[in-house]
């Protein structure tokens, strides 16, 4: 018996024997939360893009990295619960049939006897499943931490320094010199990251050679601190030292490649599962598609971040247009309306100036006709939790058929519309639409008297 086994406390031995209890409990609780988190992350991303950072920021990378990490954790915990379920079944089977497999009653011959001989005793199967289940539970959290560590590496060494340098020193004024500095720094960080990744998936290749390990150790130490590897390093070294190294290496390569393409796929995809579809004759380009997020009656879970109207089929005489305000356009709005001059030269309130500037910035076209003198109001849309501008477009004289509402900015600033929303104008037989009155339901006598009953 080794010294480590002799010094092991009794409570730890007892806990190891009953580790399946907290594993199953934690897997169930964590899985329930994991299925809720992706939709919450999407809401955070939409809020951040509208109100904080804009469309293309590192917030997208953070959310997508988190989602891929959570998918790995979810898959691992599902496999853990499946293996634990089989383990529980085998434990119950061993109690029901303590003698295990009875080959005499099967009466097989030839090669089928060898097949039965290869089946291990049921106790050995239970022990193996116990090891696999516990390993799956630990590896699931290790993969999650590795994904978060990779994101932290990019954030600390690449995104934060470049953003900070750009705020302190305008690289545009440096011309080609500034571009060269950024390129050299970014390439250096990427090379260090690739070396760390290669060392990780090859199970410590650079640490096996004396002189190479001395050169590599400073980079390894810095990367380890930034990526918080102290939280998953014990799991990593324990797994690779007790399982076949080539199997672990193949799995880690699969993990790295899948994670990389997963983050990229989430970054590029507009619709859920878009990167997996094999449809060729389908496209979501602005001129050939109708995005459901443009319509209030269709966008319960997936709404446009540009503009929305009430429906794709409009029988009313009014189009209710909501335009989302985005923080990245505020500098353009200030420049377009000379906000600083208005604030100092007029007696208008700040809210009135802001509304006037935002209103003059956005232009609305009905088909190809510019709508002039459109009245706007600030509006907070509770359903989508978006801040923006609201206006009403009179379409009582619009002919039935397909039409388009387009929202654009000043032509000297933007050469494309922010949103082009198709809709179908539908008329009733009398030529106009009368809103339906809600049906009145007969209430119980008690409900009718409820309002006048004493409390």
Task: List the main descriptive attributes of the protein structure presented here.
9 strands; single chain; Immunoglobulin-like; 16 helices; about 450 residues; alpha+beta; five-stranded mixed β-sheet; extended; four-stranded antiparallel β-sheet; disordered C terminus; 2 domains
What does this 3D model show about the protein?
This protein has 455 residues and is of the alpha+beta class. It has 2 domains: 15-268, no CATH class; 292-425, Immunoglobulin-like. 55% of the residues lie in helices and 10% in strands. The protein is built from 16 helices and 9 strands. The chain has helices at 3-6, 10-17, 20-34, 37-51, 58-96, 111-117, 122-168, 171-174, 176-201, 210-226, 233-242, 245-268, 330-337, 339-345, 350-361, 445-450, and strands spanning 307-308, 313-314, 318-324, 363-366, 369-370, 377-381, 386-394, 401-408, 419-425. The strands form 2 sheets. The protein has a 5-stranded mixed beta sheet with strand order 2-9-8-4-5. A 4-stranded antiparallel beta sheet has the order 1-3-7-6, covered by helices on one side. Helix 5 (58-96) packs antiparallel against helix 7 (122-168). The longest helix has 47 residues, at 122-168. The N and C termini lie far apart (77 Å). Residues 431-435 and 445-455 have low confidence and may be disordered.
């Amino acid at each position: 018996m080794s010294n480590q086994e002799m010094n092991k406390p009794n409570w730890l031995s007892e806990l190891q024997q009953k580790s399946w209890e907290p594993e199953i409990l934690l897997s169930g609780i964590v899985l329930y939360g994991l299925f809720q988190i992706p939709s919450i992350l999407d809401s955070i991303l939409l809020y951040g893009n509208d109100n904080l950072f804009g469309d293309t920021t590192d917030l997208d990378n953070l959310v997508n990295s988190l989602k891929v990490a959570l998918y790995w954790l979810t898959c691992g915990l599902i496999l853990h619960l499946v293996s634990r379920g089989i383990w529980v079944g085998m434990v119950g089977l061993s109690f029901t049939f303590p003698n295990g497999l009875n080959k005499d009653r099967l009466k097989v011959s030839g090669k089928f006897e060898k097949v039965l001989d290869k089946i291990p005793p049921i106790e050995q199967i239970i022990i193996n499943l116990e090891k696999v289940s516990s390993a799956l539970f630990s590896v699931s959290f290790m993969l999650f931490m590795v994904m978060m560590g990779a994101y932290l590496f990019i954030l600390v060494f690449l995104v934060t320094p470049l953003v900070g340098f750009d705020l302190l020193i305008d690289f545009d004024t440096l011309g080609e010199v500034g571009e060269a500095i950024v390129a050299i720094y970014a390439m250096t960080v990427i090379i260090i990251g690739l070396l760390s990744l290669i060392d990780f998936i090859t199970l410590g290749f650079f640490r096996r050679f004396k002189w190479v390990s001395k050169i590599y150790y400073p980079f390894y130490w810095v990367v380890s601190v930034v990526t918080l590897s102290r939280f998953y390093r014990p799991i990593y070294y324990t797994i690779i030292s007790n399982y076949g190294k080539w199997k672990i290496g193949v799995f880690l390569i699969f993990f790295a490649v899948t994670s990389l393409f997963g983050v990229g796929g989430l970054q590029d995809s507009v619709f859920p599962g878009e990167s997996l579809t094999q449809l060729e004759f389908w496209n979501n380009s602005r001129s050939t598609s109708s995005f459901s997020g443009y319509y209030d009656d269709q966008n319960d879970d997936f709404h446009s971040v540009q503009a929305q109207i009430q429906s794709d089929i409009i029988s009313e005489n009014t189009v209710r247009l909501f335009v989302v305000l985005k923080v990245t356009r505020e500098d353009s709005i200030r420049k377009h309306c000379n906000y600083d001059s208005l604030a100092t030269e007029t007696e208008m309130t700040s809210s009135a100036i802001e509304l006037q500037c935002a209103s003059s910035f956005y232009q609305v076209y009905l088909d190809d006709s510019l709508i002039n003198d459109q009245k706007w109001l600030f509006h907070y849309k509770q359903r989508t939790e978006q801040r923006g501008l609201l206006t009403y477009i009179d379409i009582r004289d619009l002919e039935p058929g397909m039409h388009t509402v387009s929202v654009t900015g000043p032509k000297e600033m933007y050469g494309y519309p922010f949103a082009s929303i198709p809709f179908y104008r539908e008329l009733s037989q009398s030529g106009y639409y009368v809103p339906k009155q809600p049906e009145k339901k007969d209430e119980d006598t008690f409900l009718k008297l409820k309002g006048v009953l004493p409390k």
